[in-house]
Write a structure and sequence with these properties.
It contains 19 helices and no strands. By secondary structure, the chain is mainly alpha-helical. It has one domain (about 5-295): Hypothetical protein af1432 (Orthogonal Bundle).
Length: about 300
């Protein structure tokens, strides 16, 4: 059942590349001299991207006081960095396979991904990260688990065994992947992110959300690691509460205790305390659904 590195590369090669407009946006926004005018011109030459950007900017997620009817006004209201992240979100969710035969529940997958994105954004806000930069944290959280979708799509029979092992043995999915496949979803996810030429910090946050925080102490990577664990912690606490499930409660407590020291230091609070000021999480996730609703092109 184990796969080799060449098989990983083959899977990555089968994923569509971004349209030229998205690559141009990424190239433009890496330059400190990027102008709003240049960015607007690139987006407006891609009618589909224009429609999706306007829909997203006008969604409840951004909560603007008035409707934005032009790309130019979108850039003015939400900023160049946010528009870059909107383009990344539209492109990535559109490029990922929509279905799989492995049994990976895509609704639960996106629900968790959105939760991690929202939590990462809230953590960044709590740490004093500027509003415009918070978009980096949301998108990194949204994309951190994309490798799961690739495994489920390209090796469904093998991944079905992985999902079964994780569930029956009550072990983390990435651990079951390592044991049965030899790789976990963070590794192939980072490879796809590299193929898409996403920003280096974003690639590293995908690669290291289960990895060594001793080597990667970039705030974005620490935030995604913390947000991912916080999302799992909250899911288990809810399960423990709903079903009076002591096993789920103990698993949640173990997650809190097992946070690596750099993550604990960056976070400043145990997850049991962080969860207390995430009361608006469900509401924020509902708003963020707009990022997924746009992926089908409607």
């Amino acid at each position: 059942m184990a796969i080799n590195h060449d098989q990983l590369i083959d899977m990555v090669d089968k994923i569509p590349t971004f349209q030229e407009s998205v690559h141009r946006i990424l190239a433009l926004t890496t330059s400190p001299d990027c102008s709003a005018k240049d960015l607007v011109q690139v987006i407006e030459h891609d009618p589909i991207l224009t429609i999706k950007v306007l829909k997203l900017v006008n969604s409840a997620y951004f909560g603007l006081s008035q409707e934005v009817t032009s790309v130019n006004h979108s850039v003015v209201y939400v900023g160049i960095n946010t528009i870059k992240n909107v383009a990344i979100s539209v492109a990535t969710t559109g490029a990922l396979p929509k279905t799989n035969k492995a049994g990976l529940n895509m609704n639960r997958f996106w629900q968790h991904s959105l939760a991690v994105g929202v939590i990462a954004k809230l953590l960044a806000d709590n740490k004093g990260v500027g509003k415009n930069e918070q978009a980096n944290y949301f998108v990194a959280g949204l994309l951190h688990d994309i490798g799961k979708v690739l495994f489920a799509h390209f090796i469904p029979a093998d991944y079905q065994h992985v999902l079964h092992k994780s569930e029956t043995e009550q072990i983390p999915l990435h651990q079951a992947e390592k044991e049965l496949l030899g790789f976990d979803h963070s590794e192939i996810g980072a490879m796809v992110a590299e193929k898409w030429q996403l920003p280096p910090d974003l690639i590293n946050s995908i690669k290291n959300h289960h990895g060594s925080t001793e080597q990667d102490q970039n705030p974005l990577s620490l935030a995604i690691y913390a947000a991912n664990q916080a999302a799992h912690y909250l899911e288990l606490i809810k399960q423990a509460s709903d079903d009076d499930n002591e096993i789920a409660l103990n698993m949640a407590l173990d997650i809190d205790k097992a946070l690596p020291k750099p993550v604990k230091t960056w976070l400043g609070w145990p997850l049991s305390e962080v969860s207390k000021w995430l009361s608006s999480l469900d509401e924020e996730i509902d708003k963020a659904l707009a990022f997924i609703d746009l992926s089908d092109g409607e």
